[in-house]
Amino acid sequence: MTSKHWFKVSLLLLKFIICIQNPVLASEFDNQNINDISEVNLNFKLTSQQDVGDFVSQTKVADLDQKVQQDKNADDANFKQDSKIIPILPEWDLNSSYEFSVSELANKQQLPTPKPINDFPLVVELDERPLIETPQEIESEDPNYAIPPRIAPKERINPLTTALLLNGIPISHLTEWEIIGLTSFGDDQNGTLDYNAILKIHSQIQESLTRDNIFTVDQTGSYIQLQTVRTSREVTTMRKDPQTLFGTQIQMSLVASCILPDTPSDQQCTYTPGLVTDRNSIDPDFFVPTRINQTSNIGDIVTPESLAVMSLPGFQRGANGQEIGIDLYFPNAGALPGNSRGNTPVLTREENNKNTPTGFYSTVRQVVRANSDKAVIGRTVRGYGLILNDPNLAVNSIFQLGNTLLPDANPKITGGENPVNPNINRNLFLAANNTRLPANSFAIYHAGIGEAKSPVNITNLNQVPNATFNSIWIGLSPVIFRSIESMNRYEPIGSQRIFASAGAEGGVNSNVSLLSSVNGLEFSTANLENFYTQIYLSNFQQDVNFVDGNRLTEKTIYHPHISFSGNITGSQDVFKYYTGVITGDIVKAYLGGDFTRRTSNGWTYSAGAVGYINPDREYYSQLVGSVTKRIPVSRTTNFVLSTGVNYALDRETTIGRTISISPGSSVTTGVRLNMNSVSLGLVNYFGNILPNSIANTLLADLEIKFSNNFSLSAYYTPINETSSRSRYGTRAQLKLGNDYNSPSLSVSWNNNEYDFGRNANGNNFSITNNVFRILFKIGDPANPFDPQTAERLRRGVDQGVEQLQRERNFNELEQINPQPAIP
């Protein structure tokens, strides 16, 4: 079977798996990648318009050669779009890494803090110049081409037709480079530095026109991407109870004339066993000796040198290596609550994150062909790279070699006698960019083909034909392995203090007496001749903390992932369908789809479902839905009402043998007021409606945009019944220019609280953590996208930055924050 046949069979297989043909929404780049610190959504979605007069619902794709004639330029003066139209609830990608738990109110804030954005572009909107303009024929000696393949000037290509998402970064044929840097630090977490950079190596666009009227635009490019991804995360939570630890030391010996059989009567023997605590064996956590050495036996003859030493003041054990008597040391003989420093327990939390660099070289090819009545698009991405310190580095490297054997997505179209229709349906490009890309992943091979009929004599928005796009994606996706380790130990905070000690030694002329009973044999100073005994006892105490806690460890490993996806993109709705397999120690297979529709009168409906085999905390089955209504008040003011539900069906509830339930379900309702440069939102989470739901929470947020270059935003949760929460936070963003790649700086602060409940005395235990993040972004050229796309992307970046500021290096605040037992 040829490579072309293989590719067609794979797409037909995808269509067979999900053969639902419904209209869809006009759509978005939607790849929320926590590894990608840009984390932006490129949205191309339809909302309402206040005044739509006569219009031509046809979009032209790129002026590749000739200037469009003035009489062909469409007037879009009637296409006015209301600003600041924001649904409070987002359209969820069901396989995203978003956890709909209250913890995300702290780190992600994706539901409560939508940002004001303009209405999404209408398919009927026309650019100042056509999207595509077939070049005039020239004399050509080639029998196949009226215009042989030639390089098209980049400045004359509309970036809308070349925009795509490459491992989380939006690019176009104009993109030269882009750098995003983020540093994070906090009270109880280590500082980290993350970056995401892309550099263009090569980019070119070819155009041609065959004699049977097939117009082709062939875009190629190669890029290098460098970024960081998380490899491990360790969270240690401990409770420290002040205690006083008591210990004791027992020292004694008894020597006398030998009376045991086979011992000379004129010698001195020992009548206590030689027992000595091995101080190197004392357990460092509980201060209990684990080994006691026996240095002598009852009846051993004591040398004259040892006898001489033992008669010296203080406890002496012998000389020249001979060790006589008992010397037992027990630093932990028991404990009592409280110590000299107090009796109030202390809670601590420490988070350590480790990142690793990644490097990928990617090639991009996009082919667009048009004839008299329709257009097709084929897109191919190949990636070669490595993730340093990844345990699967060798396997993944070998896996990548297979992409060289896979074919390009090179769509075919039939020619004819009729001339090329330059009015290519914009939905074709939106459908290609609306494909579902696995979150937080790296593409090794991505190939897809789409098609759409070209509009002709359109008088109504609903007459704009739908576009379809089906693709296969092969890449590397993260799988997180978690473990929880319990910790109990004593932590010394002071030196040992002797509070009682006594001792005596002497022979037959002293009043010291000792009875030694060993294995049923009794030896007493009253019955022994010429004896000498030593008896010493010390009791001491030490200030300690009894530490009770646990340590959560996460290790991220990248595994091969194969996904088939498709979508049907219309003027007002989008339907996505997808299926795939994530390999690894436990194979995860999934099947899902989602549908979103926006109406011209301000309603937005969305619903979706995904089912997983072998689900875990990141990849699990869900049912989601939302309804949003925009109520315009004036040109600059509107209200948005919304409600939504997210039902997590089978999210993992254990880590190893430890039960660790993470709220994944939510039921919300919200309202937002957008007025000029001010946006005020209120979202309420209803707890206990669905299993494992987010607890009752009310969150308010405010954003004030002082200019196009500076804005301030803040949020506050007056009601928050979750055990781990972000109480309030703020962010300031400064942008030195109005273009997409203008240098921008964002600084944020979040105050997070971890509630550990109350003790027997009713005291509340909690930890407060302040997290700070600084993000910087710059790129070239200043604007690699068309004006509309650049503005929407810029706003999307603002949203992604704000979400990222609360999310990066602080994910899953509630669901897996280890909590020690509170008595």
Would you give an account of this structure?
The structure is a single chain. This protein folds into two domains: 3-236 and 350-485 and 552-807, no CATH class; 237-347 and 488-550, no CATH class. Helix content is 8%, strand content 47%. The protein has six helices and 34 strands. It has helices at 3-17, 103-107, 304-310, 393-400, 427-433, 787-807, and strands spanning 29-30, 41-42, 145-151, 164-166, 169-171, 177-186, 192-210, 215-257, 268-270, 274-277, 292-296, 326-337, 346-370, 374-387, 442-453, 467-492, 497-507, 515-518, 521-524, 532-569, 573-582, 588-598, 603-613, 622-632, 637-648, 654-655, 658-659, 666-675, 678-685, 697-705, 710-720, 724-735, 744-758, 764-780. The chain has a 26-stranded mixed beta sheet that branches. A two-stranded antiparallel ribbon has the order 1-2. Residues 1-130 and 797-823 have low confidence and may be disordered.
Protein traits:
34 strands; 47% strand; elongated; disordered C terminus; two-stranded antiparallel sheet; 8% helix; disordered N terminus; mainly beta; 2 domains; 6 helices; 823 residues; 26-stranded mixed sheet
